[in-house]
Amino acid sequence: MAEKPIYDKPRPKSLGKPKKLSLSQKSKAKTMAKSAGRPYPNMVDNIRATKMKDGGCIPVVDARSRKKVFREGGKVSAAWTRKEGKNKEGGLNEKGRRSYEKANPGSDLKAPQPKGGSRKKSFCARMGGMKKKLTSKKTANDPNSRINKSLKKWDC
Q1: Which of 49, 75, 79, 125 has its CA 20 to 30 A from that of 34?
Q2: Helix-helix angle 43-50:23-36, to 10 degrees
Q3: What is the pLDDT along the chain (156 residues), one digit of tens a residue?
Q4: Of 99, 127, 132, 130, which is closest to residue 112 (Cα–Cα)?
Q5: What would the DSSP string read from start to end of the chain?
Q6: Domain boundaries, the chain
Q7: Max CA-CA distance within the chain?
Q8: Do the Cβ atoms of 123 and 154 come closer than 8 Å?
């Protein structure tokens, strides 16, 4: 005999009372239902929205490039928000800078200028102030934090 679908099974008592979906989960479930041609509300998309990882992004393999692409509610999230757009030593890599400029027209991000110049002085003053005022002690002392990596990359 075939196993019952999830919507025909009783809720396990070990899970406790059901929790309401957050607004972002609800909007993701609505988007998935719309893209699949299903009416909303439905249990299938609600369950899928609660199980999403990576900040709500669904890893999908792109058929053309054969690369893993993260889809968020039917949209591809920008590279500068993901690991592949970030530099290991801090800041954004070239792909991240290009994707940020595409998402924010009019911006003009440039590569770090660690050897000197007007941009270095300005960057070090600005980021040094951010490190003091806008980060916790734990982040400020952590050598692997993004702000410390970028300050090190710029030789500040």
Answers
A1: 79
A2: 130
A3: 678 877 788 888 888 888 888 877 888 888 888 888 899 888 888 888 887 764 556 556 666 766 666 555 555 678 888 888 888 887 888 999 988 888 888 888 888 887 877 888 888 888 888 888 878 888 888 888 888 888 888 888
A4: 127
A5: -PPPPGGGSPPPGGG-SPPPPPHHHHHHHHHHHHHHT--SS-HHHHHHHHT-BTTTBEEEE-TTT--EEEEETTEEPPGGGSGGGB-TTSSB-HHHHHHHHHHSTT-------TT-SHHHHHHHHHHHHHHHHHS-HHHHH-TTSHHHHHHHHTT-
A6: 24-62+70-75, 78-111, 118-153
A7: 74
A8: yes
Q: Which residue has the tokens 């809720």?
A: 11
How many residues does this entry show for the chain?
156
Strand residues in the chain grouped as ranges (E): 58-61, 68-72, 75-76
Contact present, 70 and 54 (Cβ < 8 Å):
yes
CB 25, CB 49: distance < 8 Å: yes
Structure token pair of residue 82:
């993901």
Confirm whether pTM is higher than 0.70: no
Helix (H) or strand (E) holding 130: helix 118-134
